[in-house]
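Dear colleague,

Thank you for sharing your sequence with our group. We've completed the structure prediction you requested, and as agreed, I am returning the results in plain text so they can be pasted directly into your records. Please verify that the sequence below matches your submission; if there's any discrepancy, let me know and we will rerun it promptly.
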Amino acid sequence: MLHAIVRFLGLQSNVVSSEKLVATLGGVLAIFCCFYLTQFFTGTAGTAAILPSMGASTVLLFAVPHGQLSTPWALFAGNLLSAIIGVTCALFIPAVGLAAAIAVALSILVMHLTRSLHPPGGATALAAVIGGTSITELGYWYVITPTLLNCSVLFLVALLFNNIFSWRRYPQSLMRYQSVGYHPDTRQIKKQHIHEAINRSELVIDASDEQIKHIIDLADAIFHEELLKGFNLEAGAFYTNSQPGRKWSVRQVIDQHEHPEPTRHQIIYRIVDGEGKGQSGTCSLVEFAAWAKEKMRPKNNPV
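Please find the predicted structure tokens below.
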């Protein structure tokens, strides 16, 4: 029951303490710079209206720097296009409530069409409509000051700050992932396959092809680590795959060529019963552990 509740609520995965600290420090630095820049151009009232959207952008750029919603294109295009839409709605739609609703809705549509989905863009559009006279008096200058300037500040701080640390990069295209896949099947999955799978699924996923490929390889590595942790290979022993019917088979381990990497640790076996009886073969330790479901002991013949 508890698992179902947690799954329904969507509890996010935990991150290491160092990541939490870095994201916090980056947020302090970014908002500090944006606050005084915005205050200089729009005054205190304007700062109160525009900073919430920049605060949301800051969360993405420093807490999720490798996300698709945090890319430079999403940051600039998402906020600037939304600012243009917000100002236009404020100028040409007299009813404030209607103007606010249309501004946010059109921003979502345009960000989708331009592949620049950036949630703070909705707040940027909304602020142009309901931000008060200090914002509406700016007209289309609102797009330049403070929106473009604030986005530029956030981008520069994110670029300089995030790249100080070896485990994070900004933009995320600068991140390189080390291959950790054990099984040949996952190594055959390429980034273009993942990209096409996302397109066919019609899902909005805040992760790059490289990140998803890295997660697949890492999950595969963890699976095989757990598989090998409970598997004890014994030379001369008999193992079965426990498959029903004709697929049932028993292998005896004849020899092995040990190697630190499980995929290169070779097992030589002979099939002593079931499917393929009398044949010999080789496979990696990982493949043998995945095949073997049970260790067997031959029944002694009565004297």
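Summary note from our side: The radius of gyration is 29 Å.

Kind regards,
the structure core
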